[in-house]
Design goal:
The chain is flat, with a radius of gyration of 14 Å. Strand 3 and strand 4 form a beta hairpin. The protein is mostly beta strands. It has no helices and 5 strands. It has a 3-stranded antiparallel β-sheet, with no helix packed on it. Strands 1-2 form a two-stranded antiparallel sheet.
Amino acid sequence: MPANARPRSCSAVLVRDATGWQRGELGCAEAPVRMAATLADGRVMLAGNRDLWLRPAP
């Protein structure tokens, strides 16, 4: 990596469904996703150092 390049991390999530485990790519960023959780109402929450994402309810 060049000396002036900012570090980037790539994140992925594993989700279990009726057919087994599925991998989902969350992309690459300077501040990667730190936690992913499925809430009681079925929404998915992703949290990073600076961001919080919620998937709409099904």
